[in-house]
Automatic annotation (TrEMBL):
Organism: Paracoccus lutimaris
InterPro entries to which the protein is assigned, alphabetical: Folylpolyglutamate_synth, Folylpolyglutamate_synth_CS, Mur-like_cat_sf, Mur_ligase_C, Mur_ligase_C_dom_sf, Mur_ligase_cen
Domain of life: Bacteria
The protein's name: Dihydrofolate synthase/folylpolyglutamate synthase
The organism's taxonomic lineage, starting at the top: Bacteria, Pseudomonadati, Pseudomonadota, Alphaproteobacteria, Rhodobacterales
Gene3D superfamilies: Mur ligase, C-terminal domain, Mur-like, catalytic domain
One example GO MF annotation: tetrahydrofolylpolyglutamate synthase activity
Keywords: ATP-binding, Folate biosynthesis, Ligase, Magnesium, Metal-binding, Nucleotide-binding
Pfam families given in the database record: Mur_ligase_C, Mur_ligase_M
EC number assigned by the record: 6.3.2.12, 6.3.2.17
Domain Mur ligase C-terminal: 284-399
Metabolic or biological pathway: Cofactor biosynthesis; tetrahydrofolate biosynthesis; 7,8-dihydrofolate from 2-amino-4-hydroxy-6-hydroxymethyl-7,8-dihydropteridine diphosphate and 4-aminobenzoate: step 2/2; Cofactor biosynthesis; tetrahydrofolylpolyglutamate biosynthesis
Domain Mur ligase central: residue ranges: 35-251
Family under the similarity heading: Belongs to the folylpolyglutamate synthase family.
Length: 411
């Protein structure tokens, strides 16, 4: 991280150069399932992986950002990359790159490809870092399958101001004659994706047209041209996970799998910091009789999904502890949460230079209708809230970087 700037500079030139110097390892990895979208990429990837692994398959997976440790980004045949393998692979990439300019995400993505090329597996799950068209992962000429999760407004400084522009960047992962699973989309995003797919002769399987997933009582109902499946609800909580589960199941169906793998996808997936109940560690000790939850959603769609999740839970006083980046639409994130929470305590994200100051987070929350105050850190915020509302629901939220800090520093 000290050697390379943690900046976003969407381009494929540096990536193609270092991969060529490494012998183009991206051409020697197992069949790729490439996943783009604004929200739900990680959850959908986790469900696809659970389904594939239930069939006894070995699966590589690449995701970002990491939460507690960098190793989470690179999973080799089901296991996180070891410290020794990670260090050796990064050294190799440093030598191949020499003293030429490259970003942190680019060189670590090159390291992932190099590691994937050396370990046998059946599939590679590749999550886009940002956008799609010019993302460092978009160097696979012929993936087995592409997936586009729900597209919404985010990262406008890089991807464009409108939903159509952002959808165009996400649709950049489509490849000629390669099938694509498309989650339900807003009409304008869907039109952009369909237009690009038509130019590339890429078959689309679109949510609410070619397949559908919905909740009925305590069941997930999935339906497509092959029939109907009555499955358990996803173990990952929240109404939005119904769509993510449907997307993952549609991908598994495209790959030739059936009910057993679909069931495993929804009941065996693990994905931390997505409405995760914390059950141990010093913060749980501070919370005492209160519930403590963690969520990394950080844009308006994430705020809406979180609000819907809270609305579906048992009624209980809910208090937010929130830290956000200064690059996000904070007001858009806060508005849907105002109806579901009694208060917000704003904190800075520790160690993050782009944190929004807690005072500004609190000001925006108050304007959005959430009574707000500040605290120097999460532990202090917890103590303040528990002293006033000892049996409440406490939710740390607003950023994956804050979620990672909580998981890493508080057990």
């Amino acid at each position: 991280m000290a050697l390379h700037p943690k900046v976003i500079d969407l381009s494929l030139e540096r990536m193609l150069r270092i991969l060529d110097a490494l012998g183009n390892p991206q051409d020697r990895i197992p069949p790729v399932i490439h996943i783009a979208g604004t929200n739900g990429k990680g959850s959908t990837q986790a469900m696809i992986r659970a389904g594939l692994e239930s069939a006894g398959l070995r699966v590589h997976a690449y995701t970002s950002p990491h939460l507690a440790q960098f190793h989470e980004r690179i999973r080799l045949a089901g296991e996180l990359i070891t410290e020794a393998d990670l260090a050796a692979t990064l050294e190799e990439c440093e030598a191949a790159n020499g003293d030429q300019a490259i970003t942190f995400f680019e060189i670590t993505t090159a390291a992932a490809f190099l590691a994937f090329s050396r370990v046998p597996a059946d599939y590679t799950l590749l999550e886009v870092g940002l956008g799609g068209r010019l993302d460092a992962t978009n160097v696979i000429d012929a993936p087995r399958l592409t997936v586009i999760t729900p597209v919404s407004i985010d990262h406008t400084q890089y991807l464009g101001e409108t939903l159509a522009e952002i959808a165009g960047e996400k649709a950049g992962i489509l490849k000629r004659r390669t099938p694509c699973i498309v989650a339900p989309q807003a009409p304008v995003a869907r039109e952009v994706i369909e237009a690009r797919a038509e130019r590339l002769f890429a078959p689309l399987s679109i949510g609410r047209q070619d397949w559908d997933s919905r909740r009925e009582g305590d069941s997930l109902i999935y339906q497509d041209d092959h029939g109907l499946m009555d499955l358990p609800l996803p173990v990952l909580p929240g109404p939005h996970q119904i769509v993510n589960a449907g997307t993952a199941i549609a991908a598994l169906r495209e790959l030739g799998f059936g009910r057993i793998e679909a069931r495993a996808a929804v009941v065996e997936a693990e994905w931390p910091a997505r409405m995760q109940r914390l059950t141990r560690g010093p913060l749980v000790d501070i919370a005492q009789g209160a519930e403590l939850w963690l969520d990394g959603g950080h844009n308006p769609a994430g705020g809406e999904a979180l609000a819907q999740t809270l609305a579906g839970m048992a009624r209980k006083p809910t208090h937010l502890i929130c830290g956000m980046l200064n690059t996000k639409d904070v007001a858009g994130y806060m508005r849907p949460l105002a109806a579901q929470a009694q208060s917000l305590t704003a904190i800075d994200i520790p160690g993050e230079p782009n944190t929004l100051p807690a005072t500004e987070t609190a000001r925006i929350a108050t304007a959005a209708g959430l009574p707000a105050r500040t605290a120097p850190d999460a532990a202090t915020a917890l103590r303040q809230i528990v002293a006033e509302s000892p049996h409440a629901r406490l939710l740390v939220c607003g950023s994956l970087y804050l979620a990672g800090h909580i998981l890493r520093e508080h057990g």
